[in-house]
């Protein structure tokens, strides 16, 4: 018996996304069919997999397929599969809500960007899947029955705030989605999606590689007798099994969109065929845009595992390291069991070898791009550089290669980043260090006092502003024999100049060192030309940013005191020396030193420990100087 029809509300995020689809901002509406076929194909993959795992599953797997049936008179198009199907709860969870983390954030950005192109860009990045039906339909009916279950579920919606759902007795296994098409409107690129030629064209363009048969119901007239029959309209060839020269670029692109759920074209394709004792094929892609959740914790990896053309699992972490989590694609291994589990994969030696080869191929692809297609490389690095740099910490085997393909902002050029190779190339004779400074932004680093003497001497400094930079640079010793040296750490010995002799500053420095509690020591500086003071860390110390990061992660770290360096040619510093020599100004000098310390903190973009006190002392001083 059918249950009564229930009307339910879409989750708020889902409703907003649907709104966008109904008032379609995406210009290429044909892609709705790609999404529905893609879902049907996934459902068939899942069914096959589940029957391998569960021998008792009461499922019919005799003629697995996807069918397209159009009705010109009713203006409907049905896409159906006999795959895994969905239970009633699954329909509510999967179709009525959007589980992707970061959806709210995404929708907020979407709202902010008034410009249509930018919106398309965003939605492309997000991938709207099933909801794209509402670009072309004003009413959608989904009838589904999960393999092994007795009852089915009917879901209907006009894409507004609500949908109806009911349990039905007589539903075939799998899912059928029926679209009640909007009126035709060629101006708005809304074609007749009941026309045979159109459907054929879309399948060929977007879904040819789908390994399940996609059958289109066609009309055949033979000797005045009209019959309807199904005709397979896709070739179904696994792209990765074909040879590279045989696959047109567009097919790679559409395949990428199917597996990645990204609507943009990929930036680069990597096709690997390994023969020999352990045979496998891989088709990997570098996307052209970072997904919005690249740095979210639960972010999945993008490589699917197939065994002998059979889909085994999504986001196979055994095949790609975390720092290459943005790489999408398929790996098809010939000699694995269809029953492999994630645990087995993690430990399998051949899988580990395969992963090493694939990582090297991805990195060498970027290297080639760097040489042959600098603009593509620049896009890649802007989008994914911050993730790739994580590899400097986790993948010591490829550290050198990662350093080779990295690029960084530098004081050498205000616009163009530099590679380390180019930096080293420019080094003057005898310079043994690659100088760098970390900070929250280019502007903060550039105006920092630490940079003054380097700038005055024309020495190039790398400007590292990604959070990860603080960490890899700390643990990476050198590149091509040149050591990494922070301009904000340790004593710098800027060649020609002798390190400053304390001379007659000595008594002042000694006194300050023992009276200024916030710092480890007070000494003269050779890195300042115009600022009175700056703070520097000792070689092995945590930087303030790292200290903050560890604290934020809940790791206890000891408070790190730094060294206050004074500029011996600054009037404030020489004035302090004179006052100290004259004696009797200790309270005032202590205050001045605190102010100097505060100014040094502010100059590097840091936070004052006690802003109220700083402001009060400064205001008193200013008042007295009037
Ligand atoms: P995505 O495919 O990116 O997960 P979709 O919006 O296309 O997002 O689909 C949402 C979910 O609904 C799918 O992940 C799947 O679980 C379920 N689904 C959609 N279509 C089908 C189908 N034909 N058969 C079974 N499940 C489906
Ligand atoms: Mg989908």
UniProtKB/TrEMBL annotation:
Name of the molecule in the record: Chaperone protein HtpG
Classification via Pfam families: HATPase_c_3, HSP90
Classification via HAMAP family: HSP90
Keyword terms, alphabetized: ATP-binding, Chaperone, Cytoplasm, Nucleotide-binding, Stress response
Task of the protein: Molecular chaperone. Has ATPase activity.
Principal location class: cytoplasm
Histidine kinase/HSP90-like ATPase domain boundaries: 28-185
Gene3D superfamilies hit by this protein: 3.30.230.80, 3.40.50.11260, Heat shock protein 90, C-terminal domain (1.20.120.790), Histidine kinase-like ATPase, C-terminal domain (3.30.565.10)
InterPro entries: HATPase_C_sf (IPR036890), HATPase_dom (IPR003594), HSP90_C (IPR037196), Hsp90_fam (IPR001404), Hsp90_N (IPR020575), Ribosomal_Su5_D2-typ_SF (IPR020568)
Region described as A: 1-342
Gene encoding the protein: htpG
Region (C) residue spans: 549-626
MF-aspect GO terms: ATP binding; ATP hydrolysis activity; ATP-dependent protein folding chaperone; unfolded protein binding
GO cellular component labels: cytoplasm
Family named by the database record: Belongs to the heat shock protein 90 family.
Subcellular location: Cytoplasm
Subunit note: Homodimer.
Binding site for ATP: 35, 39, 81, 86, 100-102, 125-130, 175, 342
């Amino acid at each position: 018996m059918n249950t009564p029809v229930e009307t339910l509300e879409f989750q708020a995020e889902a409703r907003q996304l649907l709104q966008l689809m109904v008032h379609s901002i995406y210009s290429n509406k044909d892609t709705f069919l790609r999404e529905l076929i893609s879902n049907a194909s996934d459902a068939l993959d899942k069914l096959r997999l589940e029957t391998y795992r569960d021998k008792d599953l009461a499922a019919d797997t005799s003629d697995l397929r996807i069918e397209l049936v159009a009705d010109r008179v009713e203006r409907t198009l049905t896409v159906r599969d006999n795959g895994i199907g969905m239970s009633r709860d699954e329909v509510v969870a999967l179709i009525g809500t959007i589980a992707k983390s970061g959806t709210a954030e995404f929708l907020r950005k979407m709202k902010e960007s008034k410009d249509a192109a930018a919106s398309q860009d965003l939605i492309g990045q997000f991938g709207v899947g099933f909801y794209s039906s509402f670009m072309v339909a004003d009413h959608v009916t989904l009838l589904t029955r999960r393999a092994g279950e007795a009852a089915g579920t009917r879901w209907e919606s006009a894409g507004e705030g609500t949908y109806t759902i009911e349990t039905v007795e007589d539903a075939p296994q799998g899912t059928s989605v029926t679209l009640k098409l909007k009126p035709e409107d060629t101006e708005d690129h809304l074609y007749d999606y009941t026309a045979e030629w159109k459907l054929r064209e879309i399948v060929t363009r977007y879904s040819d590689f789908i390994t399940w048969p996609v059958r289109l119901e066609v009309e055949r007239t033979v000797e005045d007798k009209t019959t309807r029959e199904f005709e397979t309209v896709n070739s179904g060839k696994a792209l990765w099994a074909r040879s590279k020269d045989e696959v047109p670029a567009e097919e790679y692109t559409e395949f990428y969109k199917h597996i990645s759920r990204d609507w943009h074209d990929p930036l680069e394709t990597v096709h690997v065929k390994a023969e020999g004792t352990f045979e496998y094929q891989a088709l990997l892609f570098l996307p052209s845009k970072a997904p919005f959740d690249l740095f979210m914790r639960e972010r999945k990896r993008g490589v699917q595992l197939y065994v002998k053309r059979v889909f085994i699992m999504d986001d196979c972490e055994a095949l790609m390291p975390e720092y290459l989590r943005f790489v999408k694609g398929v790996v098809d291994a010939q000699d694995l069991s269809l029953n492999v589990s994630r645990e087995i994969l993690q430990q399998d030696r051949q899988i580990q070898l395969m992963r090493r080869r694939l990582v090297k191929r991805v990195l060498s692809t970027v290297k080639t791009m760097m040489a042959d297609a600098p603009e593509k490389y620049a896009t890649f690095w802007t989008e994914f550089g911050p993730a790739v740099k994580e590899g400097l910490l986790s993948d010591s085997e490829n550290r050198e290669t990662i350093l080779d393909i990295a690029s960084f902002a530098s004081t050498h050029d205000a616009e163009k980043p530099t590679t380390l190779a180019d930096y080293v190339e420019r080094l003057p004779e005898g310079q043994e260090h690659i100088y760098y400074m970390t900070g929250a932004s280019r502007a903060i680093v550039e105006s920092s006092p630490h940079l003054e003497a380097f700038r005055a001497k024309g020495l190039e400094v790398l400007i590292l502003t990604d959070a990860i930079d603080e960490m890899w640079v700390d643990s990476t010793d050198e590149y091509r024999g040149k050591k990494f040296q922070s301009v904000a750490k340790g004593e710098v010995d800027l060649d020609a100049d002798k390190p400053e002799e304390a001379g007659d500053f000595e008594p002042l420095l000694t006194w300050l060192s023992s009276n200024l509690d916030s710092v480890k020591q007070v000494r003269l500086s050779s890195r300042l030309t115009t600022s009175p003071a700056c703070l520097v860390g000792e070689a092995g110390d945590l930087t303030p940013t790292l200290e903050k990061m560890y604290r934020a992660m809940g790791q206890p770290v000891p408070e790190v005191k730094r060294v206050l360096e004074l500029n011996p040619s600054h009037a404030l510093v020489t004035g302090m020396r004179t006052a100290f020599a004259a004696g009797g100004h200790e309270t005032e000098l202590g205050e001045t030193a605190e102010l100097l310390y505060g100014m040094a903190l502010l100059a590097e973009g840091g936070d004052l420990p006690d802003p109220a006190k700083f402001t009060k002392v400064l205001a008193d001083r200013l008042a007295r100087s009037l």
